[in-house]
Amino acid sequence: MSSQLLPLVTAELTAPADPRAAAMAGALAAQYPQAARAVLFYGSCLREANLDGLMLDFYLIVSDYGAAYGNSWLARANAAIPPNVFPFAHQGLIAKYAVLSEADFARLTSTAADNVSVWARFAQPSRLLWAADDLAWQRAIAAVASATPTLLSLARPMAEGEGDVVALWRTGFTLTYDAELRAERTGRSLSIVDADPDRYRRFGQAALADGLPPSPTNALGRWRALQRRGKWLSVVRLAKASFTYAGGIDYLAWKINRHAGTAITIKPWQRRWPLLGAITLLPRLFLGGAIR
Predict the structure, then answer these.
(1) Residue 268, domain extent
(2) What is the CA radius of gyration of the chain?
(3) Each residue of 186-240: pLDDT tens digit?
(4) How many domains does the chain have?
(5) Which contiguous run of DSSP H or E holds residue 41?
(6) Are 172 and 62 members of one domain?
(7) For position 1, what pLDDT does the model report?
(8) Looking at the structure, do residues 259 and 224 belong to the same domain, yes or no?
(9) Can you say whether the dihedral through the CA atoms of 173, 178, 180, 186 is positive or negative?
(10) Distance (Å, rounded) from C-alpha 152 to C-alpha 223?
């Protein structure tokens, strides 16, 4: 059966990107010569003309975690609670990158995913900046192409009969934001679609024409489960990042301040014990509404 969505996804993934981001993707892949399969660039920096001073976002797709890390606890951590997240710098730019295996990337963009974090991000625009070979290229495109049907399929039962596909997208992103600890201001989930409604209309109509995966029979129960697991995973990933991400607590404060308009300052003791420091931030952030 022919697909109307796949050509749209392919064209978007292969559209021009900032050459500095493309160079950074190649340098990142070179850090994992035995494992790197693809590097994807995503997030708000896609829309920025000047990347200086910004934190770029990448996903590094690897063949498997053993090939990426060898016999290391990092491989076990990545498999148990994907992804691992690390900092990276290249030619004056800074970034963070998340590591997923090809198998986990395919699973976490599908309706089989037990959390929203990957498919919610790749239902949005991204760029495929590097691939090891044609098979890696095709697998990455196929995984990204499954994110849009996943979001729309899970959102459709919750959309209260709304017929407009753009409204369906808005429902989907509102639900995904409720399924993670978020540092963005209220309304951020809607602004994603409002920034380019024509793009979301085209992608949504193509996905509907192809046919969506079956919606869950108990959609409300499924979303409640996703919300519970998503909040729990957000805290666990934060704890894990305190071990894998140098300066992670400073990045956390920077991101919350940027998105929520707060003025959090990290104390020296919080840098010395980043896990404890991150945990002690949470009550203040919830009470102040910086995350929800």
Answers:
(1) 247-288
(2) 19
(3) 456 678 999 999 999 999 999 999 999 999 889 999 999 998 887 777 767 766 7
(4) 2
(5) strand 36-42
(6) yes
(7) 47
(8) no
(9) positive
(10) 13
> Domain check: are 53 and 126 in the same one?
yes
pLDDT tens by residue, 76-120: 999 999 999 888 999 999 999 999 999 999 999 999 999 999 999
Residue 219 inside a domain? The answer is yes
Q: Do 73 and 243 meet the contact criterion of CB atoms below 8 Å apart?
A: no
128 is a domain residue: yes
Positive or negative: CA dihedral 236, 239, 245, 248? positive
Q: What is the mean pLDDT of the chain?
A: 86
Tell me if residue 126 falls in helix, strand or coil. Answer: strand
Give, for 183, the enclosing helix (H) or strand (E): none
∠ Cα 181 248 131 (to 5°): 85
CB atoms within 10 A of CB 80: 10
Where does residue 175 fall: left (phi above 0), alpha (psi -120 to 50 degrees), or beta otherwise? Answer: alpha
Q: Are 17 and 127 in contact (CB under 8 A)?
A: yes
Tokens of 16: 């021009």
Q: Please report, in angstroms and rounded to a whole number, the separation of the first and last CA atoms in the chain.
A: 42
Give residue for tokens 């290229």: 137
CATH code of the domain in which 168 resides: 3.30.460.10
Tens of pLDDT along 31-73? Answer: 999 999 999 999 988 888 889 988 899 999 999 999 999 989 9
State both tokens at 170.
Answer: 């808005």
